[in-house]
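FORM 7B: Structural annotation worksheet

SECTION A. Query
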Amino acid sequence: MNLEEYFARTGYKGSLEKQDLETLTDIFQHHIRAVPFENLSIHCGEKITLELEHVYNKIVRRKRGGWCMENNQLLGWVLKSLGYDASFLGAYVFNPHQNTYATIMTHLLVKVVIDSKAYIVDGGFGVSYQMWQPMELVSGKDQPQAPGIFRFMEKNRHLVP
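SECTION B. Predicted structure
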């Protein structure tokens, strides 16, 4: 596994030296434009594993997409390898048709801290609610993006979008 091969896959040619918000945004946007959400492995009877090398080979070498846990695990590895303060968070997915959140955590996000501010990047949300820029992890702040206005709100000691 190497970063050059990952960046060739995503088409990113920017800075590898800076760990700032602008660079994070650029890396993130290249990822979501090049690596689609896809869950074909489930339907094709393929082995499902979150072993990083398997995910890397699937997405980078075989040029496939991945589901949230694969996309964000790979993106998290890239960011950590570049020196970002990155960690993973579990999330409950909102179902707009039922107007409720899932009862178990079924989604993985990447949290990145830059200059004491926490941001969320999500490289694998497979519907129209895909964020296009990192979101500052703060309650009540409108964060306009191309798909719409995103906002975290505090509810029962949890932040919800």
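SECTION C. Observations
The longest strand covers residues 107-114. The radius of gyration is 16 Å.

SECTION D. Sign-off
Analyst initials: ____
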